[in-house]
Write a structure and sequence with these properties.
The chain has twelve helices and seven strands. By secondary structure, the protein is an alpha/beta fold. The protein has a seven-stranded parallel sheet with strand order 2-1-7-6-5-4-3. Helix 7 links the parallel strand 5 and strand 6. The radius of gyration is 18 Å and the shape is globular.
Length: 304
């Protein structure tokens, strides 16, 4: 898919924090720059891995502004702007476009469980119409967390109502059959399908998907880039085998604190362990088990 706005490898970027749990923006930006220098095509900021739902609206805006002010083009950022409140979602999405972001990734309104399809459609209709502008919308399918799935029929309804506005989806269900169903239904028409599961990248590219937006790319982006470079061809099989091992290693521990432990070790900086409750740091035993699992993949992170 050559026309994908975020085609390729996108890391779901970790949010660095000070000891008092305020956002450490310079360190977060430095990590983003390292990711772009080591295989990432774009940065998914303010997502699940970035603890976005533990951040205030003002903090989210400051993060978006900080990345752009530091020289990372808005066009390389895919910020998560979906909240349970329509006004907040609209404000964040408008800010993203103002900063030059080509798209925004939206969770459904996840607090109210089992909304009707009409209610869910009404939410996105309000957001799309109030935001206006030219920014593209990407749906964030993560039913394990949101408990609000996006079905093929629902996406088709949105596409009919708002042609050109709903540009793609990130599928973090971990169910490749579901991910492929999106690609089978819509990819031929330019709809961008991204996997949240690194283990599915090669297969998704074969099915016409656009790439990945993943947590494990924080440590495995260089391998992900090799898989993407093959665009589903045979040359992607060997790096995909390694990437799948990376995914298995990082998910052997609680994902966000585990990734922070790996990045903390890489930079020899214990401040990377700072994390907002209800998340907690890994125990020493869990951390060592994670390090052993990751090191067994053979992946060595490049120096910052």
């Amino acid at each position: 898919m050559n026309q994908a706005l975020y085609g390729g490898v996108n890391a779901a970027v970790l949010t660095a924090m000070h000891d008092d749990l305020s956002v450490d923006l310079p360190r977060m930006i430095a990590h983003g720059q390292w990711l772009l220098a080591n295989g990432c095509n774009g940065l998914g900021i303010l997502g699940t891995t970035g603890e976005a739902n533990s951040l205030g609206i003002a903090e989210r805006i400051a993060i978006m502004e900080g990345f752009v002010e530091a020289g990372i083009p808005g066009a390389q950022l895919l910020p998560g702007t979906g909240t349970t409140a329509i006004p907040d979602t609209v404000m964040l999405t408008r800010k993203a476009e103002e900063l030059g972001c080509k798209g925004a990734l939206l969770l459904p309104p996840f607090f109210y469980k089992n909304p009707s399809q009409d209610g869910l459609f009404a939410y996105f209709s309000e957001v799309i119409e109030r935001v206006g502008g030219d920014i593209a919308f990407y749906l964030y399918h993560f039913p394990a967390q949101s408990a609000v799935p996006f079905t093929v029929d629902f996406i088709a309804r949105l596409l009919r109502a708002y042609p050109g506005k709903i540009r793609g989806i990130k599928d973090s269900s971990g169910d490749f059959a579901n991910t492929k169903s999106y690609a089978d239904a819509f990819a031929a028409d330019g709809f961008e399908v991204y996997c949240g599961d690194d283990g599915a990248l090669h297969a998704l590219l074969q099915a016409g998907g656009a790439g990945c937006i993943t947590a494990a790319a924080n440590v495995g982006c260089a391998i992900s880039a090799q898989v993407y470079a093959a665009r589903g061809g045979a040359a992607g099989e060997a790096p995909q085998a390694i990437l799948s091992k990376v995914r298995a290693a990082v998910t052997s521990a609680p994902l966000i604190p585990g990734l922070k432990s790996l990045i903390s070790r890489h930079h020899s900086n214990p401040a990377w362990l700072n994390i907002r409750p209800p998340h907690t740091k890994l125990s020493a035993e869990a951390e060592q088990a994670l390090f052993s699992a990751f090191d067994a993949t053979g992946v060595v992170l490049e120096a910052a």
